[in-house]
Amino acid sequence: MEEKKVSLKIDRHEITVPEGTTVLEAARIIGINIPTLCHIDLKGTCIKNKPASCRICVVEIEGRRNLAPACATKCTEGMVVSTSTLRVMNARKIVAELILSDHPNDCLTCPKSSDCELQRLALRFNIREMPFNGGELSLRKREVTASIVRNMDKCIFCRRCESVCNDVQTVGALGAIRRGFNTTIAPAFDKMMVQSECTYCGQCVAVCPTGALTERDHTNRLLEDLSNPEKTVIVQTAPAVRAALGEEFGMPAGSLVTGKMVYALRELGFDYVFDTDFAADLTIMEEGTEILNRLSRYLDGDKSVRLPILTSCCPAWVNFFEHQFPDMLDIPSTARSPQQMFGSIAKTYWAEKMGIPRENLVVVSIMPCLAKKYECDRDEFKTGGNPDVDYSLSTRELARLIKRANIGFRLVPDSEFDNPLGASTGAGVIFGTSGGVMEAALRSVYEIYTGKKLEHVEFESVRGTEGVRRASIDLNGFELKVGIAHGLGNARRLLNEIREGKNEYHVIEIMACPGGCIGGGGQPMHHGNAEILQARTRALYAEDAAKPLRKSHENPFIQQLYEEYLGKPMSEKAHALLHTHYFNKSVN
Amino acid sequence: MKTLSIQDLERIRKSAQADLQIREESNKRTTEASCGLALGTPSLQVLVCGGTGCKASASHDIVDNLKKAIEENGIADKVEVITTGCFGFCEKGPIVKIIPDNTFYTQVEPKDAEEIVRQHIIGGKRIDRLLYTDPKTDKSISDSKHMDFYRKQMRIALRNCGFIDPENIDEYIARNGYFPLATCLTEKKPADVIDEIKKSGLRGRGGGGFPTGVKWELTAKQKADRKYVVCNADEGDPGAFMDRSIMEGDPHSVIEAMTICGYAIGASKGLVYIRAEYPLAIHRLKVAIEQSRAYGLLGKNILGSDFSFDIEIRYGAGAFVCGEETALIHSMEGKRGEPTLKPPFPAEQGYQGKPTNVNNVETLANIPIILDRGAAWFRTIGTEKSPGTKVFALAGKINNVGLIEVPMGTTLREVIYEIGGGIKGGKKFKAVQTGGPSGGCLTEKHLDTPIDFDNLLAAGSMMGSGGMIVMDEDDCMVSVARFYLDFTVEESCGKCTPCRIGNKRMLEILNKITEGKGTEEDLRTLKTLGQVIKDTALCGLGQTSPNPVLSTLDNFYDEYLAHVKKKVCPAKKCKALLTYAINPVNCIGCNACAKHCPADAIIGSTRKPHIIMPEKCIRCGMCVSRCKFNAIVIC
Amino acid sequence: MPDIKLACDIAEQVEAICDKHGNDPGELINILHEAQHLQGYLPEEMQRIIARKLDIPVSKVYGVVTFYTFFTMTPKGKHPISVCMGTACYVRGSEKLLDEFKRQLGIDVGETTPDGKFSLDCLRCVGACGLAPVVMIGEKVYGRLQAADIKKILEELE
Q1: Looking at chain C, which subunits does it touch, using at least 3 CB pairs closer than 8 Å as the criterion?
Q2: Domain boundary, last residue among C67, C95, C112
Q3: Where along this sequence does the record place binding of [2Fe-2S] cluster (chain C) (predicted)?
Q4: Per-residue buried b or exposed e for A555-588, using 16+ beta carbons within 10 Å of the residue's own CB
Q5: Domain membership flag for residue C123
Q6: Selected catalytic residue, list A54, A313, A314, A369
Q7: Is A95 at the interface with chain B, CB within 8 A?
Q8: Residue C122 is assigned to a ligand binding site
């Protein structure tokens, strides 16, 4: 069917666009950047928020009595739009001033300062006074959770977080409450997030335009530990961090900064710099073996085996099914996440090897994720109250530390991870993007199951950005059916199918964040630009391609770990250190 | 459940018309002679207003007492007591009307019932003290037709209110009810029905005045597996109660109109979104829906045609914004009643994403009679661009508070001074507020403006749903603007910035002004802010919310100026701007004021003139009420 | 406010109301009306039951409850007082009535007296504008009320 087109005039430009294009989109095509605030449309994901409610993007349309929001007004044939008349500019400015009149304006001490969309508008609109300030401030709450800090007096009620939490993630922890001036976004009964079904996925933080939702900051805690001579402080870095960290230093999205990052971490004073990718390879050993076990028992007709098996690397996803699907706790793999496998091995195998007492060893992780902070705090990952991973910092926090420590990130040389916990294969690297865990697992499962060497390691069929993807892999005549879902809403769809007995998969990978970890809640802000996420994904695949080893089971240090310490995958020791169990956390 | 045929409907009409005849005839009668059983009147009917206003004054007890007295006198076979909908003259309620002599008793109390039965119904002698007294001539008037309040009215939407028993479908049928529907189903194509409504020029009575026929056509044009007809009965405008009165007094007209609309646009389901605060209207509507279903006038294959239609009730829950049609639809879907951007219009994507036609109660009440009497007839009433009548809830500082219906084009002066009987207590007229929180205040200079959609808009107000509040010289226009804005701030859904924060800031400025802390700069800010809110708010309600402020700024700028420059409230309403003082000439030094002053602000020795210390005075007014010598002056 | 556990029979009645409406999220407002009717308010536990039955996040239910003024999470007094703040009543002095009620009862709008006897609210137009100013106490409408009448009315209701 031929696409219908409409022609219109925007300012001095004539333009023809497909029917259904908004005025905002049409204007962008011709380089007119109409300011927005509540609007977000992260193409290629389901992250969208178009309430047309902030009224920052208003434009004048000939023949209409009132100004119209460009974000939600569709172009029509013959429309005449003016985007920057005095009337429009004054209206926008006054609307922004109104928002500022119910905002603390403490930019100097705000964690979002210089990365805040409201601050940018104030600058752009040349706001030099606050004519409406001095009035009442709306009724808001503050909260500090293990992962997320809510400072709702900075909320401008754009409702991006509400859209993400409900429409994308289907968690429903946050929603609009009350009405009028005191409307705000809050968990049910205006209680705390910790009392809600929040998964700490952090997507609300990832879309928040202001400082209302930010991460729990551990930078000071880390600086204290680093300066404590009695502590050995080691760090692990998740795969997605290296593909995004450069953005914080003005480097183009997709710049791979692995070497610089390792260098900077050493400069900060870490005693050892390790890689979560190592633990990702370890995860494949455990999870892959579990897959093969369950699969072969299933194929042998064991009725007690439930399929599909679901990956369990993503802590927000774990929180999600503990809250929302307590009846299905036996389906996900029992393998701990790479972060926790790392911590567990570091504080046993490696600590013993190095002769460092557990209480003197501090394991820190750098994660693209906020749920990881909460995961560190889970009681089942502690020995005598001492956590396997002491705490986790987001990519953004690491960037702040690097800046604070005067490290000229763009200029520093590359450095290598330490061994043994810093060595990884390409399979470990792609954990950071949606489909990566599945691809890594397939590389090993294929070789172990078929006994044949896998020549072409790239499983293109599991890559991509679609919310739910499916693929079949031929394992010596057995057709292994796999599914990949990213975004918890997509996960819910698959889980509902499984619950209804309509499942067609053997293995499913689930990541809570759209795009996988590269789009995590701890990453540099994407401000609605989908190209940034795509560039990060490409960077991870590039790093994988450049690695000499690309299958987890080929990692020599992993092999050594099993030989020296764990025995075999799924051994008793492996079970104790690398596997976990799940809890019913339903709140309703 | 049986399905009526048109012949059945005819039969019901005929038999019910016989019952109604006595009322119809007395309506036309002009004689003033009273009737009674003793005078040979064969039978009488007593109509008692059962509207919310009169019920609040125990009109149901009047009904009980009347029935009891009739029973005791053994005349139950000759006298019938009928509870009707609102007569409109709420100021004088409860109303009891005697048929056939048309005696219109006002402010009846339950204890009067016995006397009405004995003296009037049996004895044939009117009870003079219950008659209405014309304030102009001081003479009592027994027939409402001769009262100023009714003389200028033309009751079309209210045609059955106060005339029929709303809980008796037969009485509605007797007045040709459901025949327009029957005609549509048997003789007209949907397009013809829409055409007729378009030709009538009927415009939406809910506020905006959008042509109803065009709206229907827009919904009819949509292709969809399901469509909906929605009746907006979420009358939230403070001081407006016309929709409630129609639902209480003539619920079948709404049901019939919705069914006709369903036929015209191709919908088989109707929803009434009604305020939960209207228990009586809900009850009457439920009864009416049941009765229509029992007659097969709702349900499958109506009147034997292949058209099926049914109606469900959805309740509002106290949110003014739900009068906005997109908000209303979200509320019906079980969500927060927040408006969404139009387009898409409900006609394209409404309830559950399906094409939905939303009309308000009064609009719908006009539909059956337009189809009955024809578009041409309708166009003879009212003005060219606003044909027909409009119902107003007349309230405030006016002698005759009540529900009135006048042809469009009637002037404000006629409404206020003739129908309304002028300003209460002989005070001076100051302003009339129309359109509720979306409207504005009109002044003396607008009094001769013929009322219609366009004229009111041009004058800086709007028709709104039909609230009309009259204000006198004692009303401070800054306070009135503040009152409306306070309402808007409380009722704002909070979705868009201009309404959520902008109105709040305007309210704060108005509070400042009424507290004597305002500046001229504040007045400019009010104007700028008001204009930006009008220009940028998301929904119709937000866009009109600054109107009360902007219109009073336009029409009463001097009064604002007095507040900010001289720090004086000319109407003596703004507490903070008042000064209490004692006139030494009148003060005899009785001490009564000082004794009762809660702030100990009055000093003075006995039998000597007292003094109020302004710095201590809290302006509570206690001294004024205690002084027997008129010695306290407020300035 | 502490979480109050609902009596078993109330919980069952709430579930029955949801079932009657087909557990349809679109019926939420009708369900809330009926549920509130059970005890005069909508405690947290009741909202959780409704959320579970309709399979929607409880934050949605709470969002709706707090949007509409008709719904309340605090038990009303034995005699709920509502002062009409419609325009007609306002211009005929309802604000004075409200102030007097506040003064006499020692509570603000939206509050209940400690003995649970009275609660005070405002409402917008009961449509008895002819009787302005109007106050509703329970189901009874008091018309043409003066501040001076209030003391007596409250005493009568004791």
Answers
A1: A, B
A2: C67
A3: 84, 89, 125, 129
A4: beebeebbeebbeebbbeebeebbbbebeebeeb
A5: yes
A6: A313
A7: yes
A8: no
pLDDT at B635 over 90: no
| Token code pair at residue A303 | 């009725």
Which pLDDT does position C131 carry in this prediction? 83
Given its phi and psi angles, is residue B439 left (phi above 0), alpha (psi -120 to 50 degrees) or beta?
Answer: beta
Beta bridge partners of B467: B393
Provide the pLDDT confidence category of residue C130 given band limits of 50, 70 and 90. confident
Output the domain CATH number for residue A9: 3.10.20.740
CATH number of the domain that C114 lies in? 3.40.30.10
Contact by Cβ (8 Å): B435, B427: no
B residues 82..121 contacting C (CB < 8 A) = 89-93
Predicted confidence band at C2 (pLDDT cuts at 50, 70, 90)? very low
Rg (CA), chain B: 27
Q: What is the domain range of residue C24?
A: 8-67
Is A138 near chain C, with CB under 8 Å? Answer: no
CA distance A39 to chain B (A): 13
Q: Which of C23, C41, C67 is the last residue of a domain?
A: C67
**How many structural domains comprise chain A?**
2
Within-domain flag for C57: yes
User: Burial letters for A147-162: b for 16+ Cβ neighbours within 10 Å, e otherwise?
Assistant: bbbbbbbbbbbbbbbb
Domain end, chosen from A101, A124, A147, is at: A124
- Given a contact cutoff of 8 angstroms between Cβ atoms, the answer to whether A312 and A318 are in contact is yes
For residue B2, what pLDDT is reported?
Answer: 63
The reply to whether C130 falls in a domain is yes
Q: Region of B600 please: left (phi>0), alpha (psi -120 to 50) or beta.
A: left
Sorted by where each starts, the structural domains of chain B and their CATH numbers stand as: 20-148 (3.40.30.10), 177-379 (3.40.50.11540), 389-472 (3.10.20.600), 477-566 (1.20.1440.230), 579-634 (3.30.70.20)
Same structural domain, C103 and C130: yes
Q: What is the pLDDT of residues A284-330, one digit of tens each?
A: 999 999 999 999 999 899 988 888 999 999 999 999 999 999 999 99
Told to judge if A313 belongs to the known catalytic residues of this protein, a careful annotator would answer: yes
Closest CA to A73 of A52, A46, A96: A52
Q: By the 8 A CB rule, do A403 and A520 touch?
A: no
C119 and C145, same structural domain?
A: yes
**Contact between residue B602 and residue B589 where contact means Cβ atoms under 8 Å apart:** no
- Interatomic CA distance for residues B552 and B510, integer angstroms: 12
Place of tokens 């790479």: A338
What's residue B561's pLDDT? Answer: 97
- Residue C1's pLDDT is what? 39
Contact residues, chain B, for A58 at CB < 8 Å: 535-536
Domain boundary among A124, A141, A175: A124
The answer to whether residue C3 is domain-embedded is no
Q: How confident is residue B610, by pLDDT bands cut at 50, 70 and 90?
A: very high
CATH code of the domain containing A306? 3.40.950.10
Positions in chain A whose pLDDT score sits under 50: none
| Spatial CA neighbour of A74 closest among A59, A91, A90, A55 | A59
How many separate domains does chain C show? 2
CB contact under 8 A, C29 and B469: no
Query: What number is the average pLDDT over the span B6-13?
Result: 92
Any chain C CB within 8 A of the CB of B258?
A: no
ipTM: 0.95
CA distance A459 to A438: 9
Instruction: Write the residue in C32, C87, C127 that is nearest to B53 by C-beta.
Output: C127
Put the strands of the sheet holding B467-472 in their side by side order. B402-407, B389-396, B467-472, B429-434, B440-443
What average pLDDT does the segment B334-343 reach?
95
In a domain, A310, yes or no: yes
Residue C93's pLDDT is what? 85
Separation of alpha carbons A450 and C114, rounded Å: 76
Residue C4 confidence (pLDDT):
56
Which residue range is the domain that position A106 belongs to? 5-124
